[in-house]
Amino acid sequence: MSTHHTKSLPPIDPMDLVGIDEQFSAEEKAVRDSVRRLCHDRIDPYVADWFEQGRINDIRGLAKELGTLGVLGMHLEGYGCAGMSATEYGLACLELEATDSGIRSLVSVQGSLAMFAIWRWGTEEQKNEWLPSMAAGEAIGCFGLTEPDIGSDPGAMRTRARRDGDDWIVDGRKTWITNGTVADVAVVWAQTDEGIRGFVVPTGTPGFSAPEIKHKLSLRASVTSELVLDDVRLPASAAFPEAGGLKGPLSCLTEARYGIVWGAMGAARSSLSAALSYASERRQFGKSIAGFQLTQQKLADMNLEYIKGVLLALHLGRRKDAGTLRPDQVSLGKLNNVREALAICRTSRTILGANGISLEYPVIRHMNNLESVLTYEGTVEMHTLVVGQAMTGQAAYR
Length: 398
Hints:
Blueprint: H1 26-43, H2 47-53, H3 59-69, H4 86-99, H5 101-121, H6 124-135, E1 141-144, E2 160-164, E3 167-178, E4 185-192, E5 195-202, E6 208-209, E7 224-234, H7 247-281, E8 283-284, E9 287-288, H8 293-322, H9 327-352, H10 363-375, H11 380-392
Parallel strand pairs: 1-4
Antiparallel strand pairs: 2-3, 3-7, 4-5, 6-7, 8-9
Helix pairs in contact: 1-3, 1-4, 4-5, 4-7, 5-6, 5-7, 7-8, 7-9, 7-10, 8-9, 9-10, 9-11
Keywords: FAD, Flavoprotein, Oxidoreductase, Transit peptide
Domain Acyl-CoA dehydrogenase/oxidase C-terminal: 245-391
Family: Belongs to the acyl-CoA dehydrogenase family.
């Protein structure tokens, strides 16, 4: 058999063994590369310190830089948004999370939760008031759904909005809210006599406060908050005109979960790359540990799962761009990719040995962050049951 054409192939890229890069258009690669450059220049040198300190230095300045780049609400059309494809948005999420899950969370909550909620469910007035400044990073948004006692069953939320003349009065608590303490606007979901409704709440409204949640050992380079609403009076114009029931908030969660399908593979890539580099340089018994069979088995298995995860993300991205992506398919992607990314980080940690727990390397940071990503936007259990229902037609969680 002739092998003459094989000899002209370029050398293999150890981080792209099957040539997935060829599946992306020039425009998609340009978006990816611009986000990677911003992360490399503006975030990578500092993010380990932010994680250690439990805060992002100058989060508003960072938000404006991300807005200038066009990644905030980048997959939305109009109102100052970039109108990019779902695949381009996915590649941006992958690059952001290769830097840190907390940075991807900042972008994800801004664009796929807060901005998407207003873009999809809001009035023209709400869209024009908030979306251009949020796309520019001049206003930061948060999304209030989860409550202290209500996680996977949002229909049981206790936050309540009641009518008072033409106004609404909102009372309740939300928790684990990314961006809450620094947000200018909160999208808050509440029970009403007409079912669950969404409200656009400027955070300066009397009765609204957002104390930051401290003592986290995950997503430390991210602002996480409680939202407290005590008799918050809002005008009628603050309510979304429709989005009755859970359809509204769940549509937003599907958007955010889609970004996670890609993002988790960024954390995986960063950890795998660190493990490969370390194994090549670390010498034991007279040779680099990359030359030992057990290390090569770990590297090969991790790369296999990484490749499959990126291919799955790309397939779901193409479906989303074609308008054929279903929420249960997003659940399948989120379930697989976060679980496998976490396993890749843990295995990478073993290759780095004791150095694996040091913030000099990104691995333990990604590993800790993914413990949160595994749970938020739907737990492993809930996504498992969504997939189970898609297969059997029976809902096991009702």
